[in-house]
Amino acid sequence: MPITPEQIEHIDALLASASADAATAVAIRQLVSGATVTRCDPADMTDEVPFRSYCSCNLYLLDGRDHCMRVTSDPSVATGFILAEKGQKA
Question: Are 48 and 2 spatial neighbours (Cβ–Cβ below 8 Å)?
C-alpha cells in the first residue's frame, strides 16, 4: 500500500504543529488506514535520514514488505511511519 502524495500533505499539515506523542500517532493512523505508526527515541534514529523534518519531530518512512523492517525514503514502498521527537525522548 503506497503512501500517496495527498496523505503526505495531510501528515505535513498535522506535524507542522504537533509533537511525536501518542495522539499524533493515532491521528496519522486515521489519515493512512492500515499503516503502522511507531514512536521511538531520537537516539535510535541517528544513523537514518528523516523523510521529513518538522519543528518538534522527524518523520521516517518504514518499509515492512520483506521479512525485516527498514527505513526507506520511497513513499511508493512505505508501509508505515516512525516518529521521533527532536531533542528529547519520544
Answer: no
Give the separation between CA 86 and CA 82, rounded to whole angstroms: 13
The CA-based diameter of the chain, rounded to the nearest angstrom, is 34
What's the pTM value of the predicted model, to 2 decimals? 0.90
Percent of the chain with pLDDT over 90: 79
Q: Summarize pLDDT for 41-83 with one digit per residue, the tens.
A: 999 999 999 999 999 999 999 998 877 889 999 999 999 999 9
Structure letter (DSSP) for residue 6: H
Burial of 51 (0-12, 13-18, 19+ CB in 10 A): buried
34: left (phi over 0), alpha (psi -120 to 50) or beta: left
